[in-house]
Design brief:
This protein has helices spanning about 30-35, 40-50, 70-75, 85-95, 105-120, 120-125, 130-150, 155-170, 185-190, 190-200, 215-240, 250-255, 265-295, 300-310, 320-325, 330-340, 425-440; strands at about 5, 10-15, 50-55, 60-65, 80-85, 150-155, 345-350, 355-360, 360-365, 370-375, 440-445, 455, 460-465, 465-470. It is an alpha+beta fold. A hairpin with a 2-residue loop joins strand 8 (about 355-360) and strand 9 (about 360-365). The chain binds protoporphyrin IX containing FE.
């Protein structure tokens, strides 16, 4: 036992915690990544070893916690006392994606202001026409699928959808991946995220010595995005010279915030890439899970449809964000899908100095630099008091008023100063997808590709998620 005393009790150290037995040198890494669902493995270990346990990442000891008090403290005390995992940030920065997600300290404060401003509701109203345009394309794609009788690959379609929305928002560029066939940036960009996940979980950073073909492909994609961003930024600068309100993130970056210095190209690129990465997979997987649950719950489909008919009347799509906000049941479907399938199920951080936590199991001393994995949605499928019958898909539970959404143990967008700034956009997009699906179609599950499953790279995502659409009866 360690001889550290806090609030009268002797604090344990990370070494004193129980946890899964690891292999020499590689520790628990192989067991963690085996099966491609590291978040579920962490949750199973949490069931076995308690809310706060130890594991080893190679030779490095790490803490995993689902203890709400510990997680809330980490959320609250960033960026001063905890930083994002240096390993995760290093992998993203290496690709040139240094931006608000990986920045720390004063640099983070500055970039965070810009990101928050670009994603606030006032801005959202400005690019709402982009969202409507992209939704119309999605609807037409689904009309064609319904007519042909073929099942739709929901995740693929929705990745195209969120990519088009996000690239419109981030740089005013219409990728139009929903209407494209064949290869192109719209096909290569979505490969970045899984590759980041693969690099984060790789036991050996071989790429620093040898570049495999996949690494070279990735480098080429990054260069392609860089060229596009340069182009779009020059265009944004021209537009802003003529006066007028910024209509996308790049245009907002042209004019520095009051008292801030002008942004460099590397910062512009890093932050645009951050938006593209942060906004795409997370939202598409969330919306895809929502469509999946709807396909298995016809009564929920009927409720979404009735609500959308009432709110939208003669409009094909919501005319503004306020109309989306009135579709409470559709939003509850999205929240319930997130509860059952959180797509960003843990946040990896590390303390900037030694810290003693008051955990459910007593005080715990964690040394500076120790990786900490916070399972900020773990309780959502286990807390039978707040979520009776937790495995059931029941969107109504969010309408019954008793549940504060987004408070631990269910915080799908994180918490504290680094709370996801894209939350409003994500909820708007996913709610529109849900309403569009139910308003236009009857949905049925399709298992032709195999049973629906779940995998995780950097974020968690569904596999084999096919749904059969037929025109609304
Ligand atoms: C359902 C969709 C989404 C989920 C579940 C999600 C979840 C999260 C989570 C858990 C974090 C980490 C918070 C932390 O480190 O404490 C985060 C950060 C972030 N998200 Fe999201 N996100 C979603 C969509 C979006 C969208 C659409 C955008 C923008 C286009 C976005 C932009 C960001 C950014 C820039 C950060 C970094 C914030 C910072 O470090 O200060 N996210 N998100």
């Amino acid at each position: 036992m360690a001889e550290v005393v806090t609030s009268g009790a002797v604090a344990r150290t990370v070494e004193d915690l129980s946890g899964p037995r690891g292999l020499p040198v590689v520790g628990n890494l192989p067991a963690l990544v085996r099966g491609g669902r590291p978040h579920r493995t962490l949750e199973e270990w949490c069931d076995r070893f308690g809310p706060t346990f130890r594991m080893s990442m190679g030779r490095t000891p790490a803490v995993v916690t689902a203890d709400p008090a510990v997680i809330a403290r980490i959320h609250r005390q960033r960026p001063d006392d905890f930083q994002r995992s240096a390993h995760v940030s290093g992998v993203i920065d290496e690709l040139g994606g240094h931006g608000v997600f990986t920045a720390e300290g004063d640099e983070w404060r500055r970039l965070r202001k810009m990101a928050t401003q670009a994603l606030n509701m006032a801005y959202l109203r400005q690019y709402f026409s982009t969202i409507t345009l992209v939704t119309d394309r999605l609807k037409r794609r689904w009309d064609a699928a319904a007519e042909s009788g073929r099942a739709v690959d929901v995740l693929d379609d929705l990745m195209r959808y969120t990519l088009d929305v996000t690239s419109g928002l981030a740089m005013g560029h219409d990728l139009n991946s929903l209407e494209q066939t064949g290869d192109g940036l719209h096909r290569r960009l979505p490969l970045l995220f899984p590759e980041i996940g693969r690099r984060i979980n790789a036991p050996v950073p071989y790429r620093r010595r040898v570049r495999l073909p996949r690494d070279r492909r990735l480098d080429a994609t990054v260069r392609e995005i860089d060229a596009l961003v340069r182009d779009r930024f020059a265009e944004a600068a021209r537009r802003m010279e003529g006066g007028g309100e910024p209509a996308n993130f790049l245009e907002a970056l042209v004019a520095p915030l009051e008292g801030e210095s002008p942004i460099t190209h590397d910062e512009v690129f890093g932050n645009v890439l951050t938006m593209l990465l942060a906004g795409e997979d997370t939202t598409s997987s969330t919306a895809a899970w929502a469509v999946h649950y709807l396909a298995g719950h016809p009564e929920a489909q009927r409720r979404v449809r009735a609500e959308a008919d009432e709110v939208l009347g003669e409009h094909a799509f919501p005319p503004d964000p306020a109309a989306v906000g009135r579709m409470k049941y559709a939003e509850a479907v999205v929240t319930e899908a997130q509860r059952l399938r959180p797509v960003a199920p843990y946040i990896a951080t590390q303390p900037l100095h030694d810290v003693t936590f008051e955990t459910e199991q007593g005080p715990l001393l964690v040394e500076k630099g120790t990786p900490i994995f916070s399972l900020h949605a773990y309780g959502a499928r286990r807390d039978t008091v707040r979520f009776p019958d937790p495995e059931a898909f029941r969107p109504e539970r969010w309408l019954e008023g008793a549940l504060p959404p987004e408070s631990l143990p269910f915080a799908p967008f994180g918490g504290g100063p680094r709370f996801c700034p894209g939350r409003n956009l994500a909820v708007v997009e996913a709610t529109i997808v849900v309403a569009t699906a139910c308003r236009g179609f009857d949905l049925e599950p399709d298992h032709s590709a195999g049973p629906v499953g779940e995998r995780a790279s950097f974020t968690a995502f569904p596999v084999n998620l096919r749904v059969r659409l037929s025109a609304r009866r």
